[in-house]
């Protein structure tokens, strides 16, 4: 479980507005996960690994109402 970092904009990592609902966050994360997953981009794993990890952390933080930053 990652600790929320107040200096990071998790909404920007997912390309969402702070008013996004939990269900919208999940849907958008799934779409981005398919696009940026390193296994789905052979030969470009290094490029996509950092992006995938960033959206993964953002989803983890924003999907939990107790940890969600507004």
Automatic annotation (TrEMBL):
InterPro entries in the record: DjlA_DnaK_co-chaperone, DnaJ_domain, J_dom_sf
UniProt cross-references to Pfam families, sorted A to Z: DnaJ
Domain J per the UniProt entry, residue ranges: 9-70
Gene3D superfamilies: DnaJ domain (1.10.287.110)
Protein name per Swiss-Prot or TrEMBL: J domain-containing protein
């Amino acid at each position: 479980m990652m600790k929320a970092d107040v200096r990071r904009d998790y909404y920007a990592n997912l390309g969402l507005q702070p008013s996004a609902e939990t269900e919208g966050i999940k849907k958008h994360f799934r779409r981005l996960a398919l696009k940026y997953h390193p296994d789905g981009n052979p030969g470009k794993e290094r490029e996509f690994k950092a992006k995938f990890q960033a959206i993964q952390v953002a989803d983890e933080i924003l999907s939990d109402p107790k940890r969600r930053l507004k």
